[in-house]
Write a structure and sequence with these properties.
The chain is of the alpha/beta class. It has a domain of about 200 residues: P-loop containing nucleotide triphosphate hydrolases (Rossmann fold), CATH 3.40.50. It is built from eleven helices and twelve strands. The strands form two sheets. An eight-stranded mixed beta sheet has the order 6-7-8-3-9-10-12-11, sandwiched between helices. A four-stranded antiparallel beta sheet has the order 2-1-4-5. Helix 3 crosses helix 4 and helix 3 packs parallel to helix 5. It binds iron/sulfur cluster. The site of iron/sulfur cluster has 13 residues, from loops.
Length: about 375
């Protein structure tokens, strides 16, 4: 195939994934388009993040990238090879390059295998290393992910959530991959542990020269480690931009709403407003035109009839919106003071009054 560019490691070409929906004796079969004609190019060595609300299709897209799922239409190219049409035998040869870290570290590890056996397994399948060499590599990988080699004889249930995710990462590294796709790899962990695992992934990326693809529903989680970010809504990419550009000036109204939803660690800087109104429409019957138009505060009549294509804006970013140029230069981000609703103002006043009432008087202080 000649579609590969020198810096592209994974490319999706109008990739679509449909799942069959409800089916009954007197009802026609229905289909849900979890991913709809997504075209992306992921560059070698970058950290590429995909964000969006639950149900937007980001996890399905992640599985398509490493062929844990087959696309219904379109193609997924890894280093120029269309992996969506490869035989299972040919795919097995490429499998060692494309590894996946699951969201739930507990259910992704076989509880009957020791940690050592879990990490050794990909080496048995993908390498010709001898048993002592594999054992040595297991010890080395455990050290790399911040665990003691002596832990290799223990079972997954003996570890905390953060440690289990480290084991999952060590297992993903065991085959010597070029790409690791993490499906919400830290969302099941405590906030303090999330930072440790994110830092670990960053360190390992540099050390092993990896390309990372991270899936997240929270823009705050991937903020500091992404090179580029794709924002998905209802199965489609609506904005794709470099990290700084996206956080400093989100252009798509949906990205702006996601930014507004990021909590700010200050009672005065936090928006209590609902960033988005209305529910996500059913993917069984997505709206015509722009899929975001029923919830978009800027929707025009054009938006409800004509679908905006994902197009280049000329600054290494792409956007699918008819009116994005109107928002350029005056986008509101969470970094600025978010607007407060009247109710939020009342709550803050009440809170301040209560605090004043509870302030200790001099009589309380001996
Ligand atoms: Fe909103 Fe219209 Fe842009 Fe869609 S195309 S995001 S409805 S302004």
């Amino acid at each position: 195939m000649s579609l590969r560019t020198p810096e592209t490691i994974i490319e999706t070409q109008a990739v679509t994934k449909r799942f069959s929906g409800s089916r009954g004796l007197f009802r026609p079969a229905t289909f849900v388009s979890a991913v709809n004609a997504v075209s992306l190019k992921i560059r070698r060595g970058e950290t590429f993040s995909i964000v969006g609300e639950s149900g937007c299709g980001k996890s399905t897209l992640a599985r398509l990238l490493v062929r844990l799922l087959h696309p219904s239409e379109g193609a997924v190219l890894y280093q120029g090879t269309d992996i969506s049409s490869l035989s299972e035998t040919d795919m097995r040869r490429l499998r060692k390059d494309l590894q996946f870290v699951f969201q739930d570290p507990f259910s992704s590890l076989n509880p009957r295998m020791t940690v050592g056996a879990l990490i050794e397994e990909p080496m048995k399948v993908h390498t010709s290393l001898s048993r002592p060499e594999r054992r040595q590599n297991v010890a080395e990988l455990l050290r790399k992910v911040g665990l003691r080699p002596a832990f290799s004889n223990r079972y997954p249930h003996e570890f905390s959530g953060g440690q289990r995710q480290r084991i999952g990462i060590a297992r993903a590294l065991a085959s010597g991959p070029k790409v690791i796709v993490g499906d919400e790899p830290v969302s099941a962990l405590d906030v303090s542990v999330q930072a440790q695992v994110i830092n670990l992934l960053e360190d390992l990326k540099a050390e092993f020269d990896l390309t990372l693809v991270l899936i997240a529903h929270d823009l705050a989680v991937i903020r500091h480690m992404s090179d580029r970010i794709a924002v998905m809504y209802l199965g489609e990419v609506v904005e794709l931009a470099p990290n700084e550009a996206l956080y400093n000036e989100p252009l798509h109204p949906y990205t702006q709403a996601l930014m507004q939803a990021i909590p700010i660690a200050s009672p005065h800087g936090r928006s209590m407003d609902a960033a988005l109104t209305g529910d996500v429409p059913s993917p069984l019957a997505p709206p015509a035109g722009c899929r975001f138009h029923p919830r978009c505060p800027h929707a025009s009549s054009l938006c409800s009839t004509e679908k905006p294509e994902l197009t280049e804006t000329g600054t290494d970013r792409m956007i699918a919106c008819h009116h994005w140029e109107k928002f350029a230069g005056n986008a509101q981000t969470h970094l600025r003071e978010p607007p407060r609703s009247a109710n939020a103002e009342k709550r803050f006043t009440l809170f301040r009054e209560r605090c004043q009432q509870q302030e200790p008087t001099t009589a309380d202080n001996p």
